[in-house]
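Homework help thread (please don't just give me the answer)

Our assignment gives two proteins as sequence + structure token strings and asks us to describe the second one. The first is just a warm-up. Here they are:
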Amino acid sequence: MVLEAKVKAQLNEYLQLMEGDIVLKVSANTDNVSKDMMNLVNELASMSPRITIEETELKRTPSFSVNRTAEDTGITFAGIPLGHEFTSLVLAILQVSGRAPKVDSAVIDQIKAIDEQYHFETYVSLSCHNCPDVVQALNIMSVLNPNITHSMIDGAVFKDEVESNNVMAVPAVFLNGEFFGGGRMTLEEILAKLGSGVDAEAFADKEPFDVLVVGGGPAGSSAAIYAARKGIRTGIVAERFGGQVLDTMSIENFISVKQTEGPKLVASLEEHVKEYDIDVMNLQRAKRLEKKDLFELELENGAVLKSKTVIVSTGARWRNVGVPGEEEFKNKGVAYCPHCDGPLFDGKDVAVIGGGNSGVEAAIDLAGIVKHVTVLEFMPELKADEILQQRLYSLPNVTVLKNVQTKEITGTDNVNGITYIERDSEEEKHIPLQGVFVQIGLLPNTDWLGEIVERTKFGEVVADKHGATNVPGLFAAGDCTDTPYKQIIISMGSGANAALGAFDHLIRN
């Protein structure tokens, strides 16, 4: 049996939701992965009379496709979609059977309007928490449009393809044989990348808002909900709803929830926001903010939104090391997510830059996968919690270098090493390796604000206890502010606080 009893019981409930018959067309061999895949497929078929199996020959072996009885839908799983991809498999079965995907009608119309032939292939690792969103989005497109096909490919099974296509970070999406994009992408982001995005005209007739929230992470979501509950006209502009939380694997300090994952928390946030009359403008990047009679927010697409008050909650992003080679070798050995990309460095030598909690946690995680990990810390001592340091130093395949400065990430087509300077002796040294994971903290996403508002030397927006900035009517919340602690739960409180501050400003002015 492939599936645990608890998982099988949950799966049985989902399979009851199937609306039509499907055929799993299987391409298998005598290898162990093929045998495990056949066990999974047979177990699925045994659980529902609506599922039948048909042997065939597909582009990759082992793999199987999910089809309607009289039609190939173009959805293929190369490898065994367990781990994080098990949900992708379940959703594919339900949607191919006829169950409608939970997608806005406008997005469905965009997908159905595509008349070009698009053949997508996504390389994943089963431990990657970003990969399922991309796989599920492309599967939905394949279900809705016969011109589109999609294959999920487990990089651990098809290592030769990973090497030949130079895949060093997942998810890695290829379109018609050419690299299309990497990292987490929503359905809307994929459509925008294909040229089906929302243009400025769609925003032309919007009335001024009472509160306009810029940013859709925990702070922005909280601010919008609190504002909307006051019965005032509220909007959210977000470059990517959920922000950096989408890239967070495990969350264990969100009080009342013992453990969750970033994407699950973001899905809950989005669901909660949609319970209210909030105008959510996703995939829109803020370009400029100006204070006139009303605030005017210009977007990258040229649209201008007006509002009586604005709450900036644009969060933060991973800090770059800023050395030669970092930008050149991104996704070619330079990575930022050990959970996602760690499996691609199986048996290889890697470095982790950063000795704080995130860096040491990354090193511990990677040590179980790679051949050897070298941790580089700029300060004389590691900054991580003592318990993490004890665990790190207990690992036989980890070297810790303290009081060193990264000088360059070297390589040709891919990373082949890292050069550093010992700060006390000023001696330059080089380590040959195949991967570098950067874990040195965050930078606020506030460059676009320019000189309109007071910011610290680090770029953080200065906000008072009401969330107010030095500009009347302009508020700020979350990780983009000068709050000393960057935590999800603190950002949520900060967003609520800023919304209440904005409402108080409105009723007094």
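The one we have to describe:
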Amino acid sequence: MTEKQHNMGMFERYLTLWVGLCIIIGISLGAYAPSFAKALDSMSIDVNGAPVVSIPIAICLFFMMYPIMVKIDFGEVVKAGKSIKPVTLTLFVNWAIKPFTMYAIAYFFLGLVFQQMIGMDAVDLVKMPFGLDLAVGSHYGSGVVVIEEGVKMLEVPLWRSYLAGCILLGVAPCTAMVLVWGYLAHGNAGHTLVMVAINSLIMLLLFGVIGGFLLGVGQLPVPWQALLLSISIYVALPLFAGYFSRKWIVAHKGLEWFEQKFLHILTPITIIALLLTLVLLFSFKGAVIIENPLTILWIAIPLAIQTVLIFAITYLMAKYWGFSYENAAPSALIGASNHFEVAIATAVMLFGLSSGAALATVVGVLIEVPLMLALVGFCKRTKSWFPS
């Protein structure tokens, strides 16, 4: 990628501001036009009478993911063998440490420290697991089957619904904005690109497996079929679309046209699609936020602690292993950041647009940019820790 492509544009630089505006717009819609989001979400693909894929959300989320995937040159993966230690460290942290520390931290704060503030008896309605048909009153994990507006739903403790969103963030390593973070930290762009490609491929295998396992440990619905469908729609489809369209465009138009023209057009699309999705999410959760505005804080605290912890683990291990700064910085930043697009998409598909899980993934977006910019600054101030 060129230097220009790595620079933060207006949308990326002010992402926290745009997210804040979407919160206000969404809450306003929820208060003054509550039927708007419900009407859009009713446009869905149903299986056995239950809504499984919201068509408007699926369209928005495809346009979130495609611009990310089309930027990846998967030919860079073969270069990973030249820097095996940074690749090994990044994969180990992302898949063997990060999901489990996220679960532990989120459970501690949401299930113990903040449970009384969230509400000991507060409940959330989430979708029934795909393909499961239980009688009303049946128990599934920590949930109870109820009827809501003629549709069977699971009533689960609200804090566990927030926990589910945190779990989905923890098993989704970043493959998008990390390109920006690595550039701003003056890291090794080749290593960052390699890890973006490898993480995209590994997510096809491990996201559903680890995510499903941790949801089960948390006594939450484990909709395996929906997890696989989620990965197919939100990762595999844009990944393959990006790969083949990139190959075709470069072959017919050339690499320079692809990088200077095509990618320039795509740059704002991911953020615009994300922001449209957030308007829908907050139009559903507006009442909850107004009644308890500290909800955002309760969720943000464990997410922020997790981000700093994973960054510290990776950064210190990189120093111990004798990495150069150029490899240490992106390795730590990749581990610290989350692929919130996939987390949001999966939470919406598995638990519903109005679920606490979906809200928790949105909070991940809210804190991501300012926190990651702070960590980028820390990297640059500690460059002297590493050998030249």
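TA reply:
I won't write it for you, but here's a hint about the kind of observation we're looking for: The mean pLDDT is 78.
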